[in-house]
Each structure stands twice: as structure tokens, then as C-alpha cells.
Design brief:
The chain is of the alpha+beta class. The protein has a single domain, classed as Outer membrane efflux proteins (OEP) (Up-down Bundle), CATH 1.20.1600. Helices cover 61% and strands 13% of the residues. Strands 1-2-3-4 form a 4-stranded antiparallel β-sheet, with no helix packed on it. Helix 7 packs antiparallel against helix 8.
């Protein structure tokens, strides 16, 4: 196995982590949203990716029976019939013969080639099962993130509609003041522009929500349609995810386990290819009866027993090429295992780092929203007192609105980061 394919886990995580502990297999229930639980449950049963993976597991299971059958003898029944017409010393003679027979063949697995192939098929079957577990985890995580995004879009739409209503009221006031000559046409057009900007965002968000609902429905294995809501977006708090030691990650993720099983299977396949250089011993035998001219006659018992040794002497480079192909496939499996493991460590580090960073962002956006609200109050007081133009009010409103939307999006990213952390840690997977 290539030295470059080895993986050495870090001694500790760079990011903040909780006390190590088990994760529930139904980790999405930690968000305490019954609709999310129902959506994930439906996806576990009806998602097409999961159903396809189940079929692949069945295919791998049947493949194990196919390879295991090579370890057992084969029995075949045959029936031969023949009619002949010959010219003999006394004239033309007719002869009929019938010969039923049972034949047996068996390969002695002296070097373990067939056993290696059988074990490789068993490992590939186990790998297909871990792949199914990984797809379960991926689908559950995708549904959770999509649902959180849907709730975030609902909140953004509500804030946008409230802002549009507030700007409509401000526009009416600006029109009245412009008609009376208290404000300029520039201030009026600015108020109209801000109102139209908010109005423009409403159908855009509504379309995005519709697309998000359709995407969630497809994940759940149903036709596109409306998706119910459970808790309000602001009511969902990010749960604390139990930590894990870096060395434990290699056993907590199904994709790493799958890559390890495929690597072991490729090693056995390589050994089986190498064994093809050695002689193969085949036993064969048969027993039957021979009926001639009439079935009333007692049949003649016939039997045969033999053995053959097939030793490769020259194959035009076929055996060498097969071993070379198997070696390259083993190396690919080894590098794939390393890639999967390194990606897993990176995903955990990113998610752990996001736990603290998103908390800091949320705190900053909350503080900025409070500051911008005070700034808007000051701008309104200055405008009403005649100390400034309405443009200052519009600018303060715009900054507050954009920051409120940003705060919602940051909270969405925080919740989705928790989902990613659950997925990165294996989502409660305990192995096969």
C-alpha cells in the first residue's frame, strides 16, 4: 500500500468543541420542530436516492452468493439420445440408445484464490450497506438545511413586507409634503425608489420560497407542493452538539468506513489475481446409465472420474496486466480512503470553527441593529425638526432593513452549520 495513503489523525481539534459524547441517531429531533421530524421521516422512506441505494445493497448481497458459489461443487444433469442405421453382415441394423448422466465438477482452492474473491465480495456488500447509511445521513442533513432555509426565507419575506408597508406610509407623507412645497421632488423620487425596491423583493422572495418548498417535497419523495411549517424561525435555537476526539472520527463516519472496506476488498482482489499465476486443480466426475435398443433392458452403468491441473505457461501478458490493473485499483482505493478521511477532518474543523464565529456575527448584527434603530430615530427627529432632509431618513431606513436581512441570513447560516457539524461527526452512526 502506498505510504502517501496513510492517515494520521490530529491530536486535537483547532476549533472549539464540547465534551465528547454519543450523538442520537435521530439528531434532527434536537431542533424540536415536529414538521422537520415528519419531513426527515418521509425522506427516509420515500427519497429516490435512498431507494436506489437499497437496490444497490441488494445487488451486492446477491453478488456475494454468486462468488460464494465458486467454492462449492457444481452438479449438472444430462440426457443423450441417439439413433443409428448401419449396414452389417446380415443386412441393415437399427440401434437406439439413451444415456442419462449426472456430472460433477469442483475446483480445489489450494491457494485461497476463491476464498479471497468470496471475502472481497462480502466486504463490498458491507461497503454498500455503509454507503446506504451515508446516504441516509446526507439526505437527513439536506432536508434539515432546506427546511431551515425555508423558515429563514419566510422571515425575510415578513421583514420585507413590513418594510414595504412602512415605506408606503412614508411615501404618502412625502407626496403630501411635496405637494405643499415643504420638500423637493428629489426627496419624493427617493422615497418612491425605496418603496419600489422593497416591493420588488417581495415577488422574488415568494418565488424563492416556492422553489424551496418544491425542493423539499422532492427530497421527501413526493410531488412538488406546499410544505407545512412548525416552529417560528426565531424560536429555533441551535442545539449543543456533543464533541468527539479526532481519532474517533475514523469510526464514526459511514463514508470513511465504506472507503476502508473497499480498500480491504481491493487488497483481496489483488491477492486473487496474483494466485492466478499458480496451478488450478479441477476435479470432475460423472455417473449414469446407458440404455440400448429398449428401455426394458437393464442399463449399463457408466461413470468417469478425473482430475486436471491447469498451470499458466504463457498468456501473452494477460496475467501480468490483470495484476497491474488490480494493483492500480488497490492504490486508487487507498488514495480514496485518505481523501475521504482528510475531507472528514476538514469538515469537522470548519463546522467547529463556525460555532464560535457565527455566535460572534449574531452578537455584532444585534448590536448594529440597535445602533441603526437609534440612528433612524435621530434621523426622524432631525427631519421633523427641519434640521435635515428626508434623504437621511431614507438612508437610515435602508441600512436598518439590510442589516435585519443580514441578521436573518447569519442565523440561518448558524443553524445550518450545526446541521453540518452533526453530519461531519457521523450523525450518530454506530457502524455495521
Amino acid at each position: 500500500m502506498p505510504v502517501e495513503s496513510k492517515v494520521f489523525p490530529p491530536s486535537q481539534w483547532r476549533g472549539q468543541t464540547e465534551v465528547p459524547g454519543p450523538i442520537s441517531a435521530s439528531w434532527w429531533q434536537a431542533f424540536n420542530d415536529p414538521v422537520l421530524n415528519d419531513l426527515v421521516g418521509a425522506a427516509m422512506t420515500h427519497n429516490t436516492d435512498i431507494l436506489t441505494s437499497i437496490a444497490r445493497v441488494e445487488e451486492a448481497r446477491q453478488q456475494t452468493g454468486l462468488t460464494h458459489s465458486a467454492l462449492l461443487p457444481t452438479l449438472n444433469g444430462s440426457l443423450g439420445a441417439q439413433t443409428t442405421r448401419n449396414l452389417g453382415p446380415v443386412g441393415i441394423a437399427h440401434s437406439q440408445s439413451v444415456q442419462p448422466q449426472i456430472q460433477m465438477a469442483y475446483e480445489l482452492d489450494l491457494w485461497g484464490r476463491l476464498r479471497n474473491l468470496d471475502q472481497a465480495a462480502q466486504l463490498q456488500y458491507q461497503a454498500s450497506r455503509t454507503d446506504l447509511d451515508n446516504i441516509h445521513l446526507s439526505v437527513a442533513s439536506t432536508v434539515a438545511r432546506a427546511y431551515i432555509t425555508l423558515l429563514s426565507l419566510d422571515t425575510q419575506l415578513k421583514v420585507t413586507r413590513d418594510t414595504a408597508a412602512s415605506r408606503r406610509d412614508a411615501l404618502i407623507v412625502a407626496q403630501d409634503r411635496a405637494n405643499e412645497g415643504y420638500t423637493s421632488q428629489l426627496e419624493l423620487t427617493q422615497a418612491q425608489s425605496e418603496y419600489e425596491s422593497a416591493q420588488q423583493m417581495i415577488p422574488e422572495l415568494e418565488q424563492t420560497i416556492r422553489q424551496q418548498e418544491n425542493a423539499i417535497s422532492l427530497l421527501a419523495g413526493t410531488l412538488p407542493g406546499y410544505v407545512s411549517r412548525g416552529r417560528q424561525f426565531q424560536q429555533i435555537t441551535p442545539p449543543r452538539v456533543p464533541g468527539a476526539l479526532p481519532a474517533e472520527l475514523l469510526r464514526r463516519r459511514p463514508d470513511i468506513q465504506q472507503a476502508e472496506l473497499l480498500l480491504a476488498a481491493s487488497d483481496l482482489s489483488l491477492e486473487a489475481r496474483r494466485d492466478e499465476y499458480l496451478p488450478q486443480v479441477q476435479l470432475s466426475g460423472g455417473i449414469g446409465g446407458l440404455y440400448v435398443n429398449s428401455l426394458n433392458f437393464d442399463p449399463v452403468k457408466v461413470w468417469d472420474l478425473g482430475a486436471s491441473v491447469l498451470a499458466p505457461l504463457y498468456s501473452g501478458g494477460r496475467l501480468e496486466a490483470q495484476v497491474g490493473v488490480a494493483t492500480a485499483q488497490r492504490d486508487q482505493a487507498a488514495y480514496n480512503y485518505r481523501a475521504v478521511a482528510l475531507r472528514a477532518f476538514g469538515e469537522v474543523e470548519n463546522s467547529l470553527s463556525g460555532v464560535k464565529r457565527f455566535e460572534e456575527q449574531i452578537e455584532r448584527t444585534r448590536s448594529r441593529i440597535q445602533t441603526l434603530r437609534r440612528s433612524l430615530d435621530i434621523a426622524l427627529d432631525r427631519y421633523q425638526g427641519g434640521y435635515s432632509s428626508y434623504l437621511e431618513v431614507l438612508d437610515a431606513q435602508r441600512n436598518l432593513f439590510n442589516t435585519e436581512l443580514t441578521a436573518i441570513q447569519v442565523r440561518e447560516s448558524q443553524l445550518n452549520n450545526v446541521v453540518s457539524l452533526y453530519q461531519a461527526l457521523g450523525g450518530g452512526w454506530t457502524g455495521i
